[in-house]
Amino acid sequence: MINEEIIAPRGADVTGRVVAVRRSGRLHKPGYLRITLTSLTLQGQQIPVSTSSFFVQGASPKKRNWALIGGATVATGKKDIAIGVERHLTFRLTQPIVIHG
Question: Does residue 100 belong to any structural domain of this protein?
Fold first, then answer.
């Protein structure tokens, strides 16, 4: 959206890249993922974009691990990161784009 006007309809194709990632640690470090958009396809034209990044972090396994640690048994508690299909992601342009046509 630009000034409350929709410029790309829902379902428009976008391309992005992963700019940072960390796997979940065994006992206390949650994993995370940072992504950014690199292009947007409008009316069959692929338009390069430069955007802010979107950051998502997995749940901390720390509380679960302390509940499961007993004697010589240690649970890993690793958690995958998931972004739901209908989740609203917000990216902000960091450079202006020009749309012809």
Answer: no
Nearest CA to 41 out of 13, 83, 4 is that of 13
To which H or E segment does residue 68 belong?
helix 62-68
Give the whole-angstrom CA distance, residue 55 versus residue 71: 37
The model carries a pTM of 0.69
**Residue 56 lies in domain:** 1-90
What residues contact 48, with CB distance under 8 A and at least 6 apart?
38, 39, 97
Does 43 fall in a domain?
A: yes
| Domain count across the chain | 1
User: 26: pLDDT confidence band, cut at 50, 70 and 90?
Assistant: low
pLDDT, tens digit (0-9, with 9 covering 90-100), for 36-61: 999 999 888 999 999 999 998 877 65
